[in-house]
Amino acid sequence: MHISFYAPFKPLGHKDPSGDLVIGTGLYEFLKKQGHALEVASSLRSRWISWKPWRIPGVRLEQRKLIKRCTGSDFDLWLTYHSYYKGPDLLGPKVAAAAAIPYVIFQGAYATKRRKDWRTRLGFYQNCKALLAADHVFANKKVDYNNLVRLLPPERVSYVPPGIYPEEFQFDALARRTLRSRWGLNDELVVISAAMFRPGVKTESLSWVIRACGALQRMGRKFRLVIIGDGKEKARIQTLANEQVSGQVIFVGKLPRRQMY
Fold it and tell me: Has this prediction a pTM greater than 0.85?
Protein backbone atom coordinates (compact mmCIF):
# COMPACT_ATOMS: atom_id res chain seq x y z
CA MET A 1 0.00 0.00 0.00
CA HIS A 2 0.94 3.62 -0.51
CA ILE A 3 0.41 5.23 2.91
CA SER A 4 0.27 8.89 3.93
CA PHE A 5 1.67 8.87 7.49
CA TYR A 6 1.11 11.60 10.05
CA ALA A 7 2.12 12.00 13.71
CA PRO A 8 0.33 15.08 15.10
CA PHE A 9 1.75 15.04 18.63
CA LYS A 10 5.44 14.68 17.82
CA PRO A 11 6.69 14.42 14.20
CA LEU A 12 9.14 11.69 13.26
CA GLY A 13 12.74 12.82 13.70
CA HIS A 14 11.91 15.26 16.51
CA LYS A 15 14.96 16.18 18.60
CA ASP A 16 13.35 15.36 21.96
CA PRO A 17 13.20 11.61 22.70
CA SER A 18 10.04 10.09 24.13
CA GLY A 19 8.07 6.86 24.20
CA ASP A 20 5.59 8.31 21.71
CA LEU A 21 8.38 9.03 19.26
CA VAL A 22 9.85 5.54 19.67
CA ILE A 23 6.51 3.81 19.03
CA GLY A 24 5.66 6.06 16.08
CA THR A 25 9.08 5.52 14.50
CA GLY A 26 8.82 1.78 15.13
CA LEU A 27 5.42 1.64 13.44
CA TYR A 28 6.71 3.57 10.43
CA GLU A 29 9.79 1.36 10.06
CA PHE A 30 7.82 -1.86 10.55
CA LEU A 31 5.37 -0.98 7.78
CA LYS A 32 8.22 -0.12 5.44
CA LYS A 33 9.84 -3.49 6.17
CA GLN A 34 6.56 -5.14 5.22
CA GLY A 35 6.91 -3.65 1.74
CA HIS A 36 4.56 -0.67 2.06
CA ALA A 37 5.48 2.73 0.65
CA LEU A 38 5.15 5.45 3.29
CA GLU A 39 5.33 9.21 2.97
CA VAL A 40 5.23 11.63 5.88
CA ALA A 41 2.21 13.80 5.18
CA SER A 42 3.08 16.78 7.37
CA SER A 43 5.33 17.95 10.20
CA LEU A 44 2.56 20.16 11.64
CA ARG A 45 2.48 19.61 15.39
CA SER A 46 -0.86 19.88 17.20
CA ARG A 47 0.45 19.64 20.77
CA TRP A 48 -1.83 21.80 22.97
CA ILE A 49 -3.12 23.49 19.84
CA SER A 50 -6.46 24.16 21.56
CA TRP A 51 -4.57 26.74 23.64
CA LYS A 52 -3.02 28.33 20.55
CA PRO A 53 -5.89 29.64 18.39
CA TRP A 54 -3.50 31.80 16.38
CA ARG A 55 -2.23 28.58 14.78
CA ILE A 56 -5.61 27.61 13.29
CA PRO A 57 -5.05 29.56 10.03
CA GLY A 58 -1.87 27.52 9.56
CA VAL A 59 -3.84 24.32 10.09
CA ARG A 60 -6.39 25.37 7.47
CA LEU A 61 -3.59 26.18 5.02
CA GLU A 62 -1.97 22.78 5.64
CA GLN A 63 -5.31 21.05 5.11
CA ARG A 64 -5.77 22.72 1.72
CA LYS A 65 -2.21 21.88 0.69
CA LEU A 66 -2.60 18.23 1.61
CA ILE A 67 -6.04 17.91 0.00
CA LYS A 68 -4.53 19.18 -3.24
CA ARG A 69 -1.62 16.77 -2.90
CA CYS A 70 -3.65 13.66 -2.00
CA THR A 71 -6.72 14.10 -4.19
CA GLY A 72 -6.32 12.08 -7.34
CA SER A 73 -3.06 10.58 -6.10
CA ASP A 74 -2.29 6.87 -5.67
CA PHE A 75 -2.45 6.94 -1.87
CA ASP A 76 -4.32 3.93 -0.51
CA LEU A 77 -4.53 5.02 3.12
CA TRP A 78 -4.11 7.89 5.55
CA LEU A 79 -2.54 6.59 8.77
CA THR A 80 -2.32 8.82 11.85
CA TYR A 81 -0.14 7.75 14.72
CA HIS A 82 -1.55 8.82 18.10
CA SER A 83 -4.49 11.20 18.45
CA TYR A 84 -5.68 12.32 21.86
CA TYR A 85 -6.83 15.44 23.72
CA LYS A 86 -3.35 16.93 23.98
CA GLY A 87 -2.48 16.34 20.32
CA PRO A 88 -5.65 15.78 18.24
CA ASP A 89 -5.45 14.99 14.54
CA LEU A 90 -6.76 18.08 12.76
CA LEU A 91 -5.58 17.06 9.29
CA GLY A 92 -6.47 13.41 8.68
CA PRO A 93 -10.29 13.54 8.75
CA LYS A 94 -10.65 16.35 6.20
CA VAL A 95 -7.82 15.26 3.90
CA ALA A 96 -8.81 11.57 3.82
CA ALA A 97 -12.46 12.46 3.17
CA ALA A 98 -11.54 14.85 0.35
CA ALA A 99 -9.15 12.30 -1.19
CA ALA A 100 -11.70 9.47 -0.73
CA ILE A 101 -9.19 7.19 1.00
CA PRO A 102 -9.60 5.21 4.24
CA TYR A 103 -8.62 7.03 7.43
CA VAL A 104 -7.01 4.98 10.22
CA ILE A 105 -5.62 5.93 13.63
CA PHE A 106 -3.04 3.87 15.49
CA GLN A 107 -2.98 4.51 19.24
CA GLY A 108 -6.12 6.53 19.52
CA ALA A 109 -7.16 7.48 23.04
CA TYR A 110 -10.48 8.54 24.55
CA ALA A 111 -11.10 9.63 28.14
CA THR A 112 -14.32 11.38 29.16
CA LYS A 113 -12.64 12.96 32.19
CA ARG A 114 -10.96 15.38 29.75
CA ARG A 115 -14.42 16.71 28.86
CA LYS A 116 -15.01 17.77 32.48
CA ASP A 117 -11.91 19.97 32.73
CA TRP A 118 -12.21 23.33 30.95
CA ARG A 119 -8.47 23.26 30.23
CA THR A 120 -8.74 20.07 28.16
CA ARG A 121 -12.36 20.25 26.94
CA LEU A 122 -11.67 21.69 23.48
CA GLY A 123 -8.87 19.19 22.83
CA PHE A 124 -11.21 16.40 23.96
CA TYR A 125 -13.85 17.37 21.36
CA GLN A 126 -11.26 17.91 18.61
CA ASN A 127 -9.96 14.40 19.28
CA CYS A 128 -13.49 12.94 19.37
CA LYS A 129 -14.11 14.38 15.92
CA ALA A 130 -11.04 12.58 14.59
CA LEU A 131 -11.92 9.28 16.28
CA LEU A 132 -15.49 9.35 14.98
CA ALA A 133 -14.24 10.04 11.46
CA ALA A 134 -11.80 7.11 11.47
CA ASP A 135 -12.63 3.97 9.51
CA HIS A 136 -10.64 2.02 12.09
CA VAL A 137 -8.77 2.77 15.32
CA PHE A 138 -6.01 0.59 16.77
CA ALA A 139 -5.14 0.67 20.46
CA ASN A 140 -1.94 -0.67 22.01
CA LYS A 141 -3.24 -0.44 25.58
CA LYS A 142 -6.15 -2.46 26.95
CA VAL A 143 -7.47 0.56 28.85
CA ASP A 144 -7.54 2.59 25.63
CA TYR A 145 -9.39 -0.21 23.82
CA ASN A 146 -11.99 -0.42 26.59
CA ASN A 147 -12.55 3.33 26.45
CA LEU A 148 -12.67 3.50 22.66
CA VAL A 149 -15.49 0.95 22.39
CA ARG A 150 -17.57 3.29 24.52
CA LEU A 151 -17.39 5.76 21.63
CA LEU A 152 -17.06 3.55 18.55
CA PRO A 153 -18.61 0.26 17.40
CA PRO A 154 -16.36 -2.68 18.41
CA GLU A 155 -15.84 -3.67 14.77
CA ARG A 156 -14.05 -0.36 14.20
CA VAL A 157 -11.58 -0.85 17.07
CA SER A 158 -8.73 -3.36 17.42
CA TYR A 159 -6.25 -4.07 20.20
CA VAL A 160 -2.63 -4.66 19.13
CA PRO A 161 -0.32 -5.74 21.98
CA PRO A 162 2.90 -3.71 22.17
CA GLY A 163 6.07 -5.53 21.13
CA ILE A 164 9.84 -5.29 21.23
CA TYR A 165 12.74 -6.48 19.12
CA PRO A 166 14.13 -9.29 21.34
CA GLU A 167 17.57 -9.15 19.74
CA GLU A 168 18.07 -5.73 21.30
CA PHE A 169 17.83 -7.25 24.78
CA GLN A 170 20.33 -10.09 24.54
CA PHE A 171 23.13 -10.32 27.06
CA ASP A 172 26.36 -8.76 25.74
CA ALA A 173 29.39 -9.98 27.70
CA LEU A 174 31.82 -7.72 25.84
CA ALA A 175 29.73 -4.62 26.53
CA ARG A 176 29.49 -5.61 30.21
CA ARG A 177 33.27 -5.88 30.55
CA THR A 178 33.84 -2.66 28.59
CA LEU A 179 31.38 -0.59 30.63
CA ARG A 180 32.52 -1.94 33.99
CA SER A 181 36.11 -1.16 33.08
CA ARG A 182 35.18 2.34 31.90
CA TRP A 183 33.25 3.02 35.12
CA GLY A 184 35.93 1.53 37.37
CA LEU A 185 33.71 -1.26 38.67
CA ASN A 186 34.51 -4.80 39.74
CA ASP A 187 31.62 -7.12 40.53
CA GLU A 188 29.46 -4.83 42.65
CA LEU A 189 25.76 -4.56 41.93
CA VAL A 190 24.78 -1.94 39.33
CA VAL A 191 21.40 -0.19 39.43
CA ILE A 192 20.52 1.49 36.11
CA SER A 193 17.80 4.04 35.42
CA ALA A 194 17.14 5.86 32.14
CA ALA A 195 14.77 8.77 31.59
CA MET A 196 14.46 12.27 30.23
CA PHE A 197 15.30 14.90 32.84
CA ARG A 198 12.15 16.91 32.23
CA PRO A 199 9.81 18.49 34.78
CA GLY A 200 6.96 16.35 36.05
CA VAL A 201 6.66 12.60 36.41
CA LYS A 202 10.02 11.84 34.74
CA THR A 203 12.03 13.85 37.24
CA GLU A 204 9.88 12.70 40.16
CA SER A 205 10.43 9.06 39.16
CA LEU A 206 14.20 9.54 39.04
CA SER A 207 14.09 11.34 42.36
CA TRP A 208 12.26 8.37 43.87
CA VAL A 209 14.94 5.97 42.56
CA ILE A 210 17.72 8.17 43.95
CA ARG A 211 16.11 8.46 47.38
CA ALA A 212 15.51 4.69 47.48
CA CYS A 213 19.17 4.09 46.63
CA GLY A 214 20.13 6.55 49.37
CA ALA A 215 18.14 4.47 51.86
CA LEU A 216 19.91 1.32 50.65
CA GLN A 217 23.31 2.98 51.03
CA ARG A 218 22.51 3.99 54.62
CA MET A 219 21.61 0.35 55.29
CA GLY A 220 25.14 -0.60 54.23
CA ARG A 221 24.30 -2.04 50.81
CA LYS A 222 27.10 -1.90 48.22
CA PHE A 223 26.13 -0.87 44.71
CA ARG A 224 26.67 1.74 42.00
CA LEU A 225 23.81 3.81 40.56
CA VAL A 226 24.08 4.58 36.82
CA ILE A 227 21.71 7.19 35.39
CA ILE A 228 21.25 7.69 31.64
CA GLY A 229 19.63 10.81 30.25
CA ASP A 230 19.69 14.58 30.12
CA GLY A 231 17.38 17.57 30.24
CA LYS A 232 16.28 20.75 32.00
CA GLU A 233 16.18 19.17 35.47
CA LYS A 234 19.77 17.89 35.31
CA ALA A 235 21.12 20.22 38.02
CA ARG A 236 18.30 19.31 40.41
CA ILE A 237 18.78 15.58 39.86
CA GLN A 238 22.56 15.79 40.26
CA THR A 239 22.19 17.77 43.49
CA LEU A 240 19.81 15.17 44.91
CA ALA A 241 22.12 12.34 43.85
CA ASN A 242 25.11 13.97 45.54
CA GLU A 243 23.07 14.35 48.72
CA GLN A 244 21.65 10.82 48.75
CA VAL A 245 24.29 8.58 47.14
CA SER A 246 27.44 10.66 47.17
CA GLY A 247 30.30 8.92 45.36
CA GLN A 248 28.09 6.05 44.20
CA VAL A 249 26.36 7.56 41.16
CA ILE A 250 27.52 7.79 37.54
CA PHE A 251 25.79 10.12 35.08
CA VAL A 252 26.25 8.73 31.57
CA GLY A 253 24.42 11.52 29.73
CA LYS A 254 22.10 11.17 26.76
CA LEU A 255 22.59 8.09 24.58
CA PRO A 256 21.24 7.27 21.12
CA ARG A 257 18.43 4.72 21.38
CA ARG A 258 20.40 2.10 19.44
CA GLN A 259 23.08 2.18 22.12
CA MET A 260 20.71 1.90 25.06
CA TYR A 261 20.53 -1.86 25.35
Answer: no
